[in-house]
Structures are given as structure tokens and as C-alpha cells.
Specification:
Length: 329
């Protein structure tokens, strides 16, 4: 073949590859991104962005499905995949969760019609109340293979996102405070199971080993140390002037926009920025939401508190998902 014609064909093939992928003709698989779901718009917006970025980058036939409280549900998302390509023989389902737990090991497998990965401590006999969301989930209508993958986990790339978040809030601060007077707290939700602790401890160790800042970890609820306990321990023998708090959550929501700021004493409905000079009192620890767990004492810190955004739809998250899928195709 003439070399110029060959190069032209290669160029055309490269240009048309994504278009072919987007039409789903060459694919016999679909990708299902699974999210928890929320009645608030934050999480849905984040996952829609993750979905759009992933499709733009890979061209894969992809949908996001929510466990509860948002649409489309997991079965509806699978219906959407099949509506775009009824030749799908395999669905690669990845829970876009940071840490494994009851949802990834029990709820999602059941919703997909698969065997759960462990016994449910909530209902050891496997009999759920009629109003339980697992009872309300309709069966998946798909005769092919569903490959349920592991969640994101403590991927080393997450440290890059954390470093970027920290750099961003420091750049937004008007104060010139050195690294020796700065502490970083990584905050996780907490769980009655050990998965969440294992995740955040791994992330914390990775972060600490490459950071010039003093670092700690704390849990919003259900685990020790609490956020306040961690901060008190970090500041007990150190005169820090700045505390940078990183919520190691995937999407913003009640916990990141209200619960954690309330614990830190920086909740102010009239302010939308993430930089706060800590001058609030700590007397009022009530939570204006329906979450009924206690979140521990509020913190006592007289310096500047910089509060970061969660991980969100960062391009690094997209890269992690893409690499997991590519290794499974």
C-alpha cells in the first residue's frame, strides 16, 4: 500500500475510533458506574460529570446507576445500556465508592442478582423488611454476564488529588503561614465495619510518607478518633497556626457541606468559600439535618482552618476508573 495512503487511513481510523465507540457498534460490553445516590443534588451532579468525562475519554457505552434516592436505579441504568446496544453480552459494573462496605459487598450484588460477598450483619437471616430498599429494587433483566468489580480503594493516585486540594486552599488564603506551623487532617465518614478504617488509614500513611506537613486522621462518626479528638491530639504539644481539613469523600453532600463544617465550627450558611479564619464559638453543636448519629465534640482551635473540597469528579478519578475497566476488558 502507498505510504501516504496508509498514513491517511491510519489518521482517519484514529479520528473515527471514538465516533465508532460512541455508536457502540464495535463493543459487546457495557460499563455501569454505581453510586449510592442522594436526595440532594450534589452527588448526582458529581456522578453525571464523572459519567460524561468517562464517556468522552473512552467512548464506552456507559451509564451511571444509583442504589437509592436518585434516578436511574441500577436496573434502569442496565436497561439504558441495552437500549443503546442490545448486543451487549457483558456488563462491567464498578462501584464508584472509595471504600468497600455493606453497600459494595452486600447491597449492590443483591441488586445485580449476584451472590452477596459476605453475610449481612443488619439481617443475618437474609430476610429484609418489606420497606427495605433491597425489597423495593426491581430485578435486573439481563441474560449476559455481570462482572462486579472492586471499588476504587486506596489508590496511590488519590494522594495527588489531596495534594492538589491542599495547594488550592493555601493559595486562596491571605495568610503567610509556614509548613512547620501547618497541620493536615484527613477526615473519613467512619463505619461499624473495619473497611472504612482500613481505607483511610492506608490513605493517611501514604499521605504522611510524602508530606512536609504534620498529619492526622479522624472520623466524622462511628469510629475513634473523632475529628475533635484528632485535632486535640495534634495540637496538644504543637503550636500550629493553620489546620487544613481534607474530607476524603468522593462527592459533596450533607456530611461535607454541613456536618463536618459544623464540627469544625466553620459552618456559615451565608458563606460559600472554603477558607475560614476560625473565630466561631463552639456552643451550638446541633445539626440541621436528618442524620441521627452523634458526631462527637466540636473542636477547639484558635488558628486558621482551611477546608478543602472533596475528591469529586477530578480527572484522576476518571483515570482510575478507566484503568480498572481496561484491565478487565
Amino acid at each position: 500500500m502507498d505510504s501516504n495512503l496508509s498514513q491517511l487511513n491510519e489518521s482517519n481510523n484514529s479520528a473515527n475510533y471514538k465516533e465508532l465507540n460512541m455508536s457502540n457498534n464495535p463493543e459487546d460490553f457495557g460499563v455501569l458506574l454505581i453510586s449510592h445516590g442522594s436526595s440532594l443534588p450534589y452527588a448526582e451532579k458529581t456522578f453525571q460529570t464523572i459519567l460524561n468525562k468517562y464517556i468522552e475519554k473512552t467512548g464506552h457505552n456507559t451509564e451511571v446507576g444509583y442504589m437509592k434516592a436518585a434516578k436511574p436505579s441500577i436496573p434502569e441504568a442496565i436497561d439504558n445500556l441495552l437500549a443503546k446496544n442490545n448486543n451487549i453480552k457483558r456488563i462491567l459494573a464498578i462501584p464508584v465508592f472509595l471504600a468497600p462496605g455493606i453497600h459494595t459487598n452486600i447491597d449492590i450484588p443483591i441488586m445485580l442478582g449476584l451472590d452477596q460477598l459476605e453475610r449481612d450483619p443488619r439481617c443475618p437471616d437474609g430476610i429484609y423488611p418489606e420497606d427495605h430498599y433491597l425489597k423495593e429494587s426491581k430485578p435486573v433483566e439481563f441474560s449476559g454476564e455481570i462482572d462486579l468489580m472492586e471499588c476504587i480503594g486506596p489508590d496511590p493516585s488519590i494522594i495527588d488529588i489531596i495534594n492538589n486540594r491542599i495547594s488550592s486552599v493555601i493559595e486562596g488564603s491571605a495568610k503567610n503561614i509556614g509548613a512547620d506551623k501547618t497541620a493536615v487532617l484527613l477526615v473519613s465518614h467512619g463505619s461499624r465495619l473495619n473497611y472504612n478504617r482500613e481505607f483511610i488509614t492506608d490513605i493517611y500513611n501514604q499521605y504522611k510518607n510524602q508530606s512536609n506537613y504534620s498529619a492526622g486522621q479522624g472520623f466524622m462518626e462511628l469510629c475513634k478518633p473523632t475529628i475533635a479528638e484528632s485535632i486535640n491530639q495534634m495540637t496538644e504539644n504543637n503550636e500550629f497556626e493553620r489546620l487544613i481539613v481534607v474530607p476524603v469523600f468522593l462527592a459533596p453532600g450533607v456530611h461535607t457541606t454541613r456536618d463536618i463544617p459544623n464540627i469544625l465550627g466553620i459552618l456559615d450558611d451565608d458563606r460559600t468559600d472554603s477558607t475560614h479564619d476560625h473565630s466561631h464559638n463552639h456552643e451550638n453543636s446541633n445539626h440541621d439535618n436528618s442524620h441521627d448519629h452523634t458526631h462527637g465534640d466540636n473542636v477547639e482551635f484558635d488558628g486558621e482552618i482551611l477546608y478543602c473540597e472533596p475528591l469529586g469528579s477530578d480527572n484522576i478519578i476518571i483515570d482510575i476508573i478507566e484503568n480498572r475497566i481496561e484491565n478487565r476488558i
